[in-house]
Amino acid sequence: MSRITTPKPEHVPADSKTTLDAFTKTIGFTPNMLACFAQSPVAFNAWADLIGSLSKTLDVKTRDSIGLAVSEVNGCNYCLTVHSYTAEHMAKLPANDIILARQGHASDPKRDAALQFARKVIQSRGQVSDTDLKTVRDAGYTDANIMEIIALVAMYSLTNFFNNVFDPDKDFPPVSPAGSI
């Protein structure tokens, strides 16, 4: 049960309205999480700037897969529904790749290295080993790419924590619990 009231889009603060409207136009509707998050223009717009910048990094399949891996580790059911939907419909990942991503893996070897690294970053709170860094570098990721993976982990964790705290009503198709995949 939600622990936050979802405002109607027309009732969000004026300083969030332009950003929320842009997301609504892109997605086709206003997700509950975004309407709730928009109640804080400072936090919402900072997150929107970060997601906008990070959408220019790596490729969409890797970004969505990292979102799935991080959301699984953080136990964020809302984000798992969102990223499962976007992975299927926007990134065009097959169902088996979505399941693999939730487990921190990918069928593509380079993406697999990024997901394993992202999962280690979140699980270890950034205390990765030299071997972890070597593995992701050997897969073809530059230090700049590794920084982008870390930034994606942080950005997805932000929305995971927001959704875990407030538990907004789900408005994407449900996904199976991790134990059943």
TrEMBL record:
Range of residues in the leader sequence: none
ATP-binding as UniProt keyword: no
Keywords: Oxidoreductase, Peroxidase
InterPro entries according to UniProt: AhpD-like, AhpD_core, CMD-like, Uncharacterised_peroxidase-rel
Location of the Carboxymuconolactone decarboxylase-like domain: 44-106
Domain of life where this protein originates: Bacteria
One term of GO molecular function: peroxidase activity
NCBIfam families for this protein: ahpD_dom, peroxid_rel
Family matches, as PANTHER family: CMD DOMAIN-CONTAINING PROTEIN, SI:CH211-175M2.5
Name this polypeptide is given: Peroxidase-related enzyme
Source species: Bradyrhizobium brasilense
Lineage of the organism: Bacteria, Pseudomonadati, Pseudomonadota, Alphaproteobacteria, Hyphomicrobiales
